[in-house]
Amino acid sequence: MLTRKTSNIIMANIFKAAKLRHDKDTYTMQHNNNFIETENYIAEVILKETIRNEKMKTDLQIIANKVIASILDPIAAVVSQNHIHCINDLPKPYQETIIKLAIQNVDAEMPFGAVLRGFKNPEEITCSMDNIKGLLLALRKCLSTACVIENLDDLLRVHKSIADLSFCYFECLPELHRHEFNTIKNMMWLTPEEMDARVLLSERGSEAKLAITFGLGRKENIDLVPAISGVGMNSAKSLFAGASMEWRLEIIIKQFDSALSARDALISKYEMECATNPQYALVIKKQLEEMEVKTYLPAVKKMQYYKIPLLKNEREPLENYVNRYKTTFEKLATLPNKSMLPLIANISRSTARTLIVLQDIEAFLTNDGLFNLALAQFITNGCAGFYIWGGNHSFTEVAEIYNRLLDYIAIQHPEQLQLDLPPVSETTNYVEVQDITEKKLPYYRVGDYQSFLLPSYTEKLAETNDKNTSESYYEKRFMPSY
């Protein structure tokens, strides 16, 4: 086992090897390249070590078994009822579930880690009960053999199956939720500002793209190519420009001003036609009403949410609104030296759904009723490896949800931690006292990769760094074409 001092030296060397030098004052995606290479490397180590490590595969099977019992089994039980002859016979929530699972396993969506191949669109699965049952059987086979995975594709399929079923549990199947689900969700889910901060490439005026490499690289014609080429996969790095409240507020203001201009033009046209062509004026009036509902009123609502005046001459400089509404997460991702950790699509909603669901189905609870910190850290490390490798989220975007899970346990179930700490009173000096729950838990400290990694991964990073090995998944980083 590595000592803390030795581990710190190892991680320092990894950072040094990655040549983390950044521009002091400005931030663009290109300035993330050194961090991106580091995170790709860490993700690769996480994935390879999980495949090699029998204890980790056993832990993965524990999580997979919980997902089977709490999510897949109830879905399969409903689908297998004698009176179900087609998807329309299923209760609405289960129809939605099957459709969601089908979408995630068809070639048209170019899925990453799918359990099925050969279906061009979701309808080819949902049109047949045999195909629906075949999909559920493929998910079961994938999850039930998590402990004997032998290669990268096997591991990716397990992680995707857990994520897909968690999505269905979270979004489609409220009847399966347990009594604490809403409390867990309220504490761990993203705020409206965090949801808004993720910005699509299309919103920044960029053409649609596809990813042709694994990992977080975003270089034009190396990692990303025009979607029109039809070569590559959809991933967050090919869809999103990044996470920026400045970008979002610019878009909100621009969309409102555009909607207001279009509305004023329709009002003027309506008033003019009322005097000359009343029949046509009714057509314009209908267009105006539809436009207000679909475009103008939503734009007004957004402006009001961020307390931005509708009149241009009453607005403050954009910088003031950015400083006011920039999320804590975005601020934390800006390191003291002004460099920026990679933000692909902001805090990971997929990880949030997965950890919220796993907590709700008590996947992290031991037989003694204690919260298994190591298991929670292991599965979230796995999520980081999976989402980084797929080009969907960065290390920090995944780890933030892990921190929120620890917050939930510390606040709602401190009895599950068995830390045996002295009681904290109102007079306790929070800064000086170390024997408090928050300071004893293994939180991810933003920018400190080691604080989030299991010791086994840190040790393997040290080994591969010392060997300076050239054998790498990343050297075979190009995605297959579909």
Q: Could you explain the architecture of this structure?
A:
By secondary structure, the protein is mainly alpha-helical. Strands 1-4 form a two-stranded antiparallel sheet. The protein is built from 19 helices and four strands. Helix 15 (349-360) runs parallel beside helix 17 (395-412). The two termini are 44 Å apart. It is globular. Helices cover 55% and strands 3% of the residues. The chain has two domains: 4-189 and 338-476, no CATH class; 260-328, no CATH class.
Anisotropy-based shape: globular
Overall mean confidence score, pLDDT: 87
User: What gap, in angstroms, lies between the N and C termini?
Assistant: 44 Å
Low-confidence stretches: 1-31
Number of helices: 19
H/E series? HHHHHHHHHEEEHEHHHHHHHHH
- Summarize the biggest pleated sheet: 2 strands, antiparallel
Q: Strand fraction band?
A: under 5%
Radius of gyration: 25 Å
**Strands, total number:** 4
Q: Kindly give the count of domains.
A: 2
Key features of this structure:
single chain; 482 residues; mainly alpha; 2 domains; two-stranded antiparallel sheet; 4 strands; globular
The gist of it:
This protein is mainly alpha-helical and 482 residues long. It has helices at residues 4-17, 33-52, 54-79, 92-103, 123-126, 129-144, 152-171, 181-188, 192-196, 236-239, 245-276, 278-305, 318-325, 328-332, 349-360, 373-389, 395-412, 437-440, 455-467, and strands spanning 198-200, 209-211, 224-226, 240-243.
